[in-house]
Amino acid sequence: MKTNYLILLLSIVFSFNCKAQELPLYVGTYTNGDSEGIYKFSFNTETGILSNKKLAIKTQNPSFITFSPNKKYIYAAGEGEISSVTAFKIIPNGNLELINIESSNGKGPCHISLNESGNKAVVSNYHGGTFSIYPINKDGSIQKASQVFNHNTKNEEAHAHSAQFYKDDLFVSDLGRNAVFQYKLKNNQYQLKRPAIVEMTGNPGPRHFALSKNSKFIYIINELESTITSVKRTKKGFKKIDEDSTLDKNYTKKNACADIHLSKDERFVYGSNRGENSIAVFKRNKKTGTLDKIQNIAVHGDWPRNFTLDPTGKFILVANRRSENISVFKIDSNTGRLSFLNTTDVPTPSCLLF
């Protein structure tokens, strides 16, 4: 009897451990081909294998997606016929259920993020050059935009590409105007603090950026010049401390950078190259914030628009839009270098979300 009980207990523990290794991965896509919307996979955090692909919900061009802080809801920037922001509820089987849709208040919404408390969202409109701030209700639904900012001027065409909250700060990367703007929350309204946190020389095209956990450092990936601009917060504002190429020294063809992330321990920075079709790996000096490139590794696909680190910090997954696959890499915890593991087919992936 005791033996049978022990076997049953071990079986339950083993089953629990196996399930604990499987994490949901949601995939935003473009639906102008074979894709139908947002897909869901299971990701094994021991083997790095993606499995159990299914369509979580049909929706048009959910090109960028993000979670609410409690991971009960997903929000999508939709580059469809109607430029929109959409709220979805995650139901028990992992599929998504539509809550509501609001206008993005600009053409070509390409990025969405939420603040730490989950009661505000910001959506960047690339073609419109605007970004919009939305209050979010407790049931996950989105209200109409409370503020809409237009970065276009008479002399400059704006292309708002991404925005992130940090406490009372809101940073907005504008590829068209070659600047990262800083806004401050005052009386529940965001007001412009700095039209450019640092001066960007030439035409770099700041696209996305990564904040250190304490926001003392900001790393901006520049789409047009294939560089990363490293910025440090000071008592008086911000200053540029480093500028690094994302490309291998022997690569001479066209390239357009896309995404950037810090490793979980903030010892490394990763950036994606569309053209060279690689991930650039940088070692980060945690004290000074400066970077040194240590690797360029092929993504085993074409046009890596977005990538993400899994929650364990052991893997990087890359969404290769044109080759329609997700590539998985193992991270060496000591060196930060990547090694290729496997690839999985998925139609026009554009955003990966754990």
From TrEMBL:
Instruction: Enumerate the InterPro entries for this protein.
Output: Cycloisomerase_2, Haem_d1_sf, Lactonase_7-beta_prop, WD40/YVTN_repeat-like_dom_sf
Q: Where does the source fall among the domains of life?
A: Bacteria
Q: Which family does it belong to?
A: Belongs to the cycloisomerase 2 family.
Look up the signal peptide feature and give its range.
1-20
Q: What is this protein called?
A: 6-phosphogluconolactonase
Instruction: Specify the species.
Output: Pseudalgibacter alginicilyticus
Q: Which GO terms describe its molecular function?
A: 6-phosphogluconolactonase activity
Keyword list (alphabetical) reads: Carbohydrate metabolism, Glucose metabolism, Signal
Keyword Signal assigned to the entry: answer is yes
* A biological process from GO: glucose metabolic process
* Annotated Gene Ontology cellular component terms: cytosol
